[in-house]
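Field reference: sequence -> structure
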Amino acid sequence: MKLCLKWHNLSLLYIWNDAQGTIVKSSWNDAQGPIVKNMKFEWFVASRYLRSRRKQSFISIISVISIGGVALGVATVILVIAVLDGVEHGLKDRFLSNEAHVVLSLIDYGFFKDYQKRTERIEALDDVVAASPAIWTQTGVFRERTDTIQDVIIIKGIDPAQEDKVTGFSTYVDGSTDFLNSEHIKKARFIRDETITGGIILGGRLAARLGIIKGDVLRLLVKLERHPVNEAMLAPDLANFVVIGFYESEMEFYDNNLGLIHINSAQKLYDAENRANTIFVRLTDAELAPRIATRIEDVAGFTVLEGMPNAITWMERQAPLFSALRLEKIATIIIEVLIILVASFNIASTLIMTVMEKTKDVGTLRTLGSSRGNIMRIFMIQGSVIGSLGTMLGTALGLVLCWLLSSNAVRPSYWYLLVLLVPILLQFLIASQHALRSKGGWKFAVGVLWLIGIGVFFYSVVRPISFVDLGLSQIYQMHQMPIRVNWVFVIFINVLSLIICWLATLYPAWQAANLKPVEALQHE
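Structure field:
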């Protein structure tokens, strides 16, 4: 059966085909007759409601706002999560590039014997790349020829060859790594009367804070002894080390606090011959650290008298930082999802107002035989189209912003922003000239110019963010804000956005489907 309907005096003929569930759209021409084009019924009506007409202009504006709200929410969450992911992975890569994956020590950080044999047993384990014994302690730095402590630093006594396999420390050293016979040590021993114990590599920021350059002598506190004249007083026992280089890892903790010396020198200082108090271990995969740590404790072979072993993974050492980042990421996702929810309420309100505006149309469609399901699908399609457009635009915007913030390409001068004046002037010209307003070609040209102008604006203005300029480089251990797009999350947020927008269509669609035909036709 076919029904013919003249729709609101639009000079169009619409024929509902019950058998196929389609609507036939026909532009009527007196000479040629109808020009027919088939379209799915619900999609056709939904597309008509999405188009802007004078009586519906307010609803159309709200639809645009709804699309913008969804787009803004999706773009923001993609961008923010990309930044947080970038910071997390940047910090992780930075930590793992110059830190051990597992650190073995006694619970009381005491010294233990036979560290060479224990190191060999650990290196024999599967998934272990290298192990490096060390002496890790704190000590005071004294000003030259005074008994005044200038600072407290961390001393790490290392075997340079083994340490390089674990942390690659030599790649971060500006200067020599010969702790026993470098040129600076030889020169200091020749011109100075004091005994020179060896060389020391200082963290770059620590050296700047102490006002030290290469070749200077640093006096380290070994222990406090009874004063030879007044036994009631304690006198510092000091050891002289020559600064042979600076450690520039760009890790705030190390660059501000660390001093590297040879393990033999550290053993002499602390009367720990053939002993160490730490073993640093690098694995083939950092993610294996929790499992390998238990095996390292077992093969270390510590006796009850020596003490309880304690193998700490890099995850445990940096747990507070990464926990804070994960918490921040979760909070951000919740906030951004709420933005999408607010936009979905706009979709719901748009559909409710459309239902109120189109009550007579719904009555007419129901009278002509449309089912409640047809009516529901019309408004669900309308809302889903709004949500889909917002999601796609938001995804595109978010990814473009991520690319711009991560690209170090040379940007054009800000003077290029004057290109925006071209579409603005043309827009005013079209608005003031009725003849131009009626020409679609002009509108299309201005639309293209607007897109070009906006593209130039974003490319000129959105640039990588420098942590150095913001004073955040010491906090995040990076010079530039990192961006890392998580494509799985992008897909997830797209699906979530579409589901939220689809759920927002259910009540208005149900409301429209339950309108009674007779009452709807009488609606004013």
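Note: The chain is about 50% helix and 20% strand.
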